Each structure stands twice: as C-alpha cells, then as structure tokens.
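The passage that follows is intended for readers who have already worked through the single-chain material. We present the inputs for a multi-component assembly, then the predicted structure in tokenized form, and finally a short commentary. You are encouraged to pause after the input and sketch how you expect the pieces to fit together before reading on.
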Amino acid sequence: MERKWWKESVVYQVYWRSFYDSDGDGYGDLRGVIEKLDYIRSLGVDVIWLNPFYVSPDKDNGYDISDYYSVMPKAGTMQDFEELLMEAHKRGLKVIMDLVVNHTSNEHAWFKESKSSIDNPKRDWYIWRDGKQHQPPNNWRSYFCPSSWEYDEVTEQYYFHSFAVEQPDLNWKNEDVREEIYKMMHFWLQKGINGFRLDAIALLGKPEEYLDAENPYDIRYLTNNPGVHDYLHEMNRKVFSYYDALTVGEVAFVTPEEGLLYVDEARNELNTLFHFEVCDEMPTWDLQRFKEIQKHWYEGLGGKGWNSQFLNNHDHTRLVTRYGNDLEYRIESAKLFAAMLHSLPGIPYIYQGEEIGMTGVRFNSINDYNDISMKNKFNELVENGQDPEDVLKLLQPLSRDNSRTPMHWNDGRCAGFTTGKPWININPNYQNINIEKALQDNDSIFYFYKKLITLRKNHLVFIYGDFQPILEEKDELYAYLRTYQNETLLFIGNFSERKLPVEYNLSGADLLISNYKGIEELNILRPYEARLYLIENV
Ligand code: GLC
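Having made your guess, compare it with the prediction:
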C-alpha cells in the first residue's frame, strides 16, 4: 500500500482532564499538556489525540458540546490551545482533535432553538417524533439510558438521543446541519490541526422508520444505518480532501467487511478506524478469539484499508488490569501486550499511563465514580430492585473511570497531578507506579515502549509487512510473521502464567527486543514472555 505519514505514526491519547493540572483547580488542562510535551515527545510518538475540550456542560466529560468554536474554561482558552498546537508542532508532534458530531449538548443554541417550537427553522436539525399512545416512538435503548427518546412537554414530541438525555442526536439528513458541521471542521483544520478522531461516527445514519427492536438490549440497531457512507463521502469531498489529515473513525459493531466500507482507500471516506470487536466483545482475555479477530480483520481489509490497534482508551479499562495480570506479572504482561500491539498490522495507540503500566481502580462507593454511563446503569438496576452492593461489584470491572484516574507523575501529594483537589480520586498505587520512577529505571515499561517505537521507525516491516499467523493451534501462544522487502519480523508471546515450549526454529533469527533479561532457553517462553525477532531474507 502507498506510504503515508499517518500509517507510520504512533498515536498517544491525552485525556487532558486527567493528564496534568497547571493551575491547581483539580482538572488537568491544556497548559498542563504544554508543560508535559517534552515528556510525550521523549516517548517517541508522532501524534497526540486530545479528547474534546470544546465548551460543554460536561455531563459526559466533554462529549456533550454546547459551542464548537470555543474552549471549555476547565481546559483553558483558545490562546492556550493555539500555543499547545504551536509547541507540539515545534517538537515534531502532530495533534488530532476529537470530533463529536453525532450529537450536541442539549444546551447547544441549535437545540434550544429546535426545542422552542414545532415550526422553528431548526426543528429539523434534531430528530423529533410523536409518541405512540403516550409512550416513546419505539422501544430502543440508548447507550446510556433505558430509552433513546426523551419527551418534551412544551412541544409534546420526543427527541432522539443515542447516548445520554443531555446529548440529543443531530439530524444528518438535514443539509444545513451538514454544511454547518463542515464549516466548523474547516475552522479547526485551518488552525493547523492534523486530523480528527471521529466520535461515534457509525451512528450518523438513521433508519427511515423507527420500528421496535426484537431485543432492545442488543443496541446494534443504533449503528450502521443507511446514509452514513454518503455523509462520510461528502465530508471527505468537502473537508478532508483539502488537507493532509489523519482521520480515524470510532466505528462500533462492524464486521471487517462493513469496516472496509469506511476505510477502503478507493472510497474516499476515512483513513482508518477503531473497531470494537476486542474492547466491546471480549470482557476478559481470550487469545483464540483475539487471533481470529486479527486474522479476520487483516484479510477483510485485504490491503485496501488501514487498521488501528488498541486495547484500552478513556472508555475501556486499562489493558494490564483487564487483559494482563496487574499484580505478579504487571510489568511482564504490560510489555507483552505492548510488543504485540506495536507489531500487529495497523496504527498503535497508547492511552496515557499505559506506558508505565497504570492499572484500573475499585472505588468503594458509587459516589466516588463520575462516569455517566456507569451511574445511569447503577440507578436503573437499583431502581429495578437489585442490591446496590451487588450492582457496584458488577459494574466496577468495566467502569470507564478505571482508565480516567489522573496520571501518576511522581510519588508526592496527589501523584504530582495537582496541587488542589483532584476531580476524581487518584489510584492509590501511585507510589509504586509513577513516571518519575519509570524514568529512573532502564528496564521500565516506559523504556520498553520507547524502544518499540524506535524499532518501528527503523524497520518498515513493522508498518507495511504482510501478516502471517503461525503455530495457530497453540492455545496460550501467539506467533506471527510479517514480511516486507528483505525483512521478516517474528513475534512470539506467551499469554499464560506457565512456561511454554515454542516449536519453531529460532536459531538463525536476531532478537530485537524481549521483556525478560536474557534468554533462559531458546525454545521455552517464561510466563508472559514476548520476543520480537528479525530474520533477513536472502
Ligand atoms: C464515544 C466516546 C465516549 C462518549 C460517547 C458519546 O464512545 O469515546 O467517551 O461517551 O462517544 O459521545
């Protein structure tokens, strides 16, 4: 496939409100990101993805936008953002922003107008329907609520929301809406940003008719409805085609065949996508399933579209807790997953703190949690009569707050994140797991990531190599070859807590990196051992 800068990039996700607080108000902010740019740069990454910092009532941590053209005061000012962009660019770092255009906040001026009366010119900018005998138009649930419809007493109709009640969906069928969004996208691209992560983008299309779902709990009906590809194609033509930007879509509930429609280079929609076959459908580690997913996506994209690789983000519990072992083998398992993610086909994304092996959390009370999706679910189940203690335990492992606790900069007060009171509790293990400590230890997870990123830069096989799984029948072992021009890369990883033999000839291969000091036995992998080899082809 054609060489492109974004294919050769590693992306670092900055959840700014939990990154670094420069002014002591308890929230991370854009100036905090500026202060830490040298740290980010030192890891060797190429692109920063910033979570939304537009003006927002902040019901869903910035994903409910009430003004697309200004910066939320908690994050800072437009001047801070411009400085951040300039300072990032000075260091060779590109910046992509979150684009949240499936919905706005209910406090956005457009929605206020839309809501004001049935014949308001902006009525059609959102999705309004009559109810059915005093009930919502259909039985659909939303991501965050028991119904995706909310009744408005003034105009006596319901509006549609795929997420929280405070996040009404825009009506993409309306051309004025689309033009207004494209205008806003140009505004940010003209400022010099390098692309967008497109939030919930598979939800832009809506059905012709809102029929009842057979099983309302299977919310796939919210995504991949007709129209989405027309809109993305138009967005590409009217916006992306004018810039050399990275566009990565959040595309839930797609098969590789459907995913290809979003990223096929010949179709001119998006560059790449996050699919959620792993994070949404694999609550705990399942290597056989993971192998199938990787193979299926590699074949499905078939050299026509580019993949993305990640195992956690601000919505998904930290990978070492969810998929590795965050106690005895925290360091080994964090490095194993890193070696795999950086050698599979696709762009690797690092979620802040992943590079030091930060872990998930368990807070003792629902009041310590902030995540609107968890809180709504908690209330729903408790109102239905379930025991609050049981519900808390049920929701803890996958609560989005697992990955939203502040970064651990050092072992001082509040982990060096803030001089004030942090907006969410700090993970109590910060004295053991923090950046200062990681930077003093040559063998830390941090330096392992840094080395992997350097290897990617020095060997194009990491990026453009084809992908061939081997030893596939082994339950606890993952191994694959990647070949490009005269180099072959071999990844082998032991996903178990016992020693495993590797029946493969390793004698002629050069070891590039491994997560244990030295090799004990060439053909035996220790618990969570990972190795990457390079084989020169003659
Ligand atoms: C995406 C975001 C998530 C947000 C939701 C609604 O899934 O990643 O954090 O809550 O969209 O915008």
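Commentary: The radius of gyration is 23 Å. Residues 60, 63, 100, 163, 199-200, 250, 314-315 surround alpha-D-glucopyranose (CB under 6 Å). How closely did your sketch match?
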